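[User]
If only I could read backbone structure tokens as easily as an amino acid sequence. I have put the entry right below:
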Amino acid sequence: MKKRLPLMLLSGALLTFGLTSTALTSCGKEPQQETKIVINGVSIKDVEGEDIDTDVFDNSEISLKAVVDTDSKEAKAKKVSWKIDDASKDFAGITSSGTLTIDNIHSGTKEIIVTATSQIDETKFASITLNVKHSLIDLNRSTDLDTEDYYSEGRLKQSDPTSNTSMIFADVYSNKWYVEAEIRLTSFDETDSYPKLGIMTGTSQYGAWQDTKNPYAFFFLDTAEPNKNNEWANASFVSNTEGYGDWDWAGSGSNYVTLTPSYKKNEYFKLGVLRNGTDYYFYYGNSSDDYKSFKAYKHISWNEVGSEDPSYAWIGGFKTASESKNFRALEGDAVDSLFNTEPTKLTLTKSSEMLKSNSSYQLDVNSDVLVFDRTKLKYSTSDESVAIVDEHGLVTTKEVEGTKEATITVTYGEGEKAITTTFKVLVSDDPANYVVLDGKMDDAIYTETVKNNKFTLRHNNVADDTFHIDFYATRNYNGVYIFADYYVDELKTSNNPGNWWEFDNFEAYIGTEKDVSASGQRWASVTSGTKANYDGRFVSDDLNTEEGKPHNFHFEVFLDYASIGANINIDTPLTFRVGSNPVGKIGWTPCSWMDSKDPADYLKITKDGFNRYFAEAEYCSEGHTYGEWIVDTKETCKTDGEKHHVCKYCGHSETETIPSIKGEHVYNESDLKVTKEATCLNEGIAEATCTVCGDKFNVTLPIDVEHHEGSYTNGEWSCCHNRLEKTVNFNYPAAQDWKARNYALGVLSSNSDWTITTDIDMVRTNGNSDAARGWAGQIEVADDDGNFTDKDDNKWVFRQDWWGWGHYNPANGGNYADDAVNREGNCGGGNFDAPETFTFDDYKGSVLDNCNLKQTYSYSATTGKVKVVTIVTALEGSLKGKQLTITYESLAFPKGKNMLVAFGMLFQMEGTHTIKSVKITGDVVEGPHALDNTVGLVTE
């Protein structure tokens, strides 16, 4: 009877209500008896009414539904009471509506017994046992996760690329932790050109960023423009701006690293982040090599979260969909195992710094080991009246007069095993040492001498108002300052603020005597995105919006000496080159020495502005360092010649006479008398008369590839095996670009070895010296349907200045592994087999303007590679007859397919190509022939 008591009490209450009601309406009638509610049973389902999956994770919330078997339609018949077993109450709870909350069990597995009992009949109930497994990802705080395969396969999905990713590590909340996961990118929101995914950290327990309350940071993979590429190699670190309202993308440029191997869509890679106080380490590896490449790539000091303050970690990102598995999380002492190698040498990013009084500077300490316990570093100062340093390496200067110096000593370890390094602090009140980057050029460092020693960049050196930039440069103890006063009559705009080059900009290189490209490419742009990759930058808005007048921008940038290279300081000679690429009708505008390798050609950056030469007293006190001799007047059989050379540092010039050499005659080729004609196989002989001394002598006539000794049968001359019946001429009109695939030299099978040799004359009439404007070649493999589609995945393109692209372009000259694909870059080659008087400037200028090309294409069926050897011979000028050999080699082409070998031109070359000879050996499918859309072909 005890279990039926609630029912009886409830019936009594109803009976009382019934009597009262009946008395009001029908006095004297017998009261009606309440219908008995019968409960047949109870079962527990999920909210959809399906059977419960009894395998669950902690840090989760589960909605349960009790199904009561009864014929009664009354609502109270469906009511149940929920409870869990007493042993589970330490980590779980359930509400009266059946919502089960499971807290963190931290490790292993546990059981929860959930019971639903009918409130009408307590003898009717149902129980289920849930097996709770610890999840390293907090499923309750994380967002938008697909957990379908998580319990069985350990894989979590974030399937919607339009939402933000947040997989929060459940066991991480301290100042010392390590997290790791294997991840693959599955899709992207193609409306965003810059989706990103990686590991985030911050103080928001919900993995929030840009909430204006919590600091946050992001170690991310940069998957720029996924709709155009599915392979990337860049990663970086970015943190919050002041006020926690946005990401500081402008400050992330110096944190980029290149990952090897690169990562691809739908391919698993492994990411890890280690935190130890304010020191963070970023790890990466790729499944393509079974994670043998997994290592730490970057150390970051980030103090937005204090060294003793805890933080959370989560897999985060935006505009990406991904799958993650094999999660790992360590805290506290368990992290110490990652510091498994002790450093033997300490280094600093900079060895010294000039600071103001009452200012601070954070030391960045590194070693021969990237990952080491930086909390073991100790700091001390030689003079506390000049500067002090705290336990984290933060240097704070004191108030001084004039210039004072202190030495900061950094120590790791103790006793005989201790290692040290030092940092020199100079504290000065000299205003020339401090510059505010504001585009105003009113700082003390910009003296009148600096302003007078400017450099103006103009298109083709023409002085007009269409476009020009006035550059000013100076330097102090800290580094180099560049001020650019930019004028252009038409703005360059784009819808992609991340592509700085699509806006008005300039790019520069600051170098040294030994490496004129030491700083790497440095740029500044008026884009609304990241505006420059200098250590300090200011870019103004348009300063002149008045219609009819040119637009005007001020750029003011700073580059630290350490960003140029090691051991560079205020006394190091520095070189400067610059170029700009405004609107299309103007185009790329470099300084005249942009491609030179000789420091003597460069402007020098001094504290007094730009200078053409270094100071003679400073650099040439022990003698001049001359460049190569330049022939001004060539000697003849009757007269002396003259030559000079110039000191590459100070500009001092020295001239010498070239004595005449009796016997070196001068003659006019038009006056030659042929005594034996040249043929395709043999040289000829002609009689010449010296125009200086009147002597008669014989000269050799070169082989004439069009004068054949044999017969032409089956598309080939029997004498020389030339596949051309006659010369093929091309005359390229203006504004024709990128025609490397202009004329087919042949189509051959990749199943056997073959060679093609050519004899081609080139005349270039553009009127400038451009290393990229001229001849190019292309080798293309047919696709699976046997067609030549001219797509990058099927070809290798190379040009005359050692640059190439396409799937079979090798990685020579880049930071790639052997035989790695370099989609665009240095082909290698360029064996500069030339005399001392034949420089690269000669090659790109006078030589390429009128030259002969002897090319040999050699294919090996064993290796699948094509080797291209080009001998370039100058046909006119003082270098006539001088030669340069250029050698390229491709990556391996697949067998079993036809290969198209083509020749053409690039970069709007104007002039002519004359193909005089094409000889082929091997399995020929097709001989030389014009292709569709061939440009410049001269037909009779």
Observations:
- The first strand starts at residue 39 and ends at 46.
- DSSP finds six helices and 62 strands in the chain.
